[in-house]
Amino acid sequence: MARFLSNQLRVLLAGLLAILPLILTIGGTVWVGTLLFQWAGPGSAFGNIMAGIGLAFVPSPTAAYLIGFLVILLCLYVFGLVVSSQVKSGVVAFIGRIMERAPLIGAVYGLLSRFLGAFGKQGSTDINAMAPVWCFFGGKGGVAVLALLSAPEAVVVGGQPYLAVLVPTAPVPFGGGLLFVPAQWVTPAAIGAEALTSIYVSMGMTAPQFLEPHAAPDTGQIHAKT
After folding, report:
1. DSSP bridge partners of 159
2. Which residue of 21, 61, 169, 226 lies most exposed, with the fewest beta carbons within 10 A?
3. C-alpha–C-alpha distance, residues 67 and 210, integer Å
4. How much is the pLDDT for 114?
5. How far apart are the first and last CA of the chain?
6. Minimal CA–CA distance to 185: which of 112, 129, 135?
């Protein structure tokens, strides 16, 4: 009887694990949609702004909200065209200069700009700001940790050059521990920030898709002892 119940429980867990990614995807999508509706829905402060834009054209509140939403999308699209063109550097520099003049907002804007800018780098092999790197604790051959380089400039700690790296946490990579490690322990990772995020969110399961697999003889699966 105990064996029968154990087998049924195993089948139940297998089904749960198979459908869990779908449940999490739907749940995450619903959560994000609810959050966006609260921030930009018809009854929100931003939604009232969009409705105010549309009320200049139509009297209906619902139609006014939709028109305002389309106007905002059009403005974002035009701004995206400007940023994607040859004047990108000038526009970004101009906005950066304006934002940096604000004492507190400027610091936050600069940090977010550097962090989000890392997601546009694909397969970079240089040590850039907020770029994915490998940290070999104890030197080459030691424990390898996939991290983000917080700043390319080294600082002096105990008379030796150290680099600030952010070691994310799985499965939510936005956070983690800020560590100062010897500069010789840090090596550029030939992947983009999106790949790093995917590896951490999947808790390492997608690592073979982005990292070079090891062609070793098949020694069998590793099973945990129960």
Report:
1. none
2. 226
3. 42
4. 65
5. 20
6. 135
- Tell me the domain boundaries of the chain: 88-118, 121-210
Q: Cβ atoms within 10 A of the Cβ of 199, count?
A: 23
| Residue of 55 and 99 predicted with greater confidence | 55
Question: Strand runs (DSSP E) across 80-176, as ranges?
Answer: 132-137, 143-149, 155-157, 160-167
Sign for the CA dihedral angle at 116, 120, 123, 127 comes to negative
Q: Measure the CA–CA gap between 169 and 174, rounded to whole angstroms.
A: 7
Instruction: Supply φ then ψ for residue 179, to 5 degrees.
Output: -120, 145
The model's pTM is 0.47
HEC states along 20-77?
Answer: HHHHHHHHHHHHHHHHHHHHHCCCCHHHHHHHHHHCCCCCCHHHHHHHHHHHHHHHHH
Residue length of the chain: 226
- Read off the amino acid at residue 46: F
Supply the pLDDT for residue 186: 93
Sign of CA dihedral 123, 126, 129, 133: positive
* 3-state secondary structure at position 163: strand
Structure tokens at 104: 């507190």
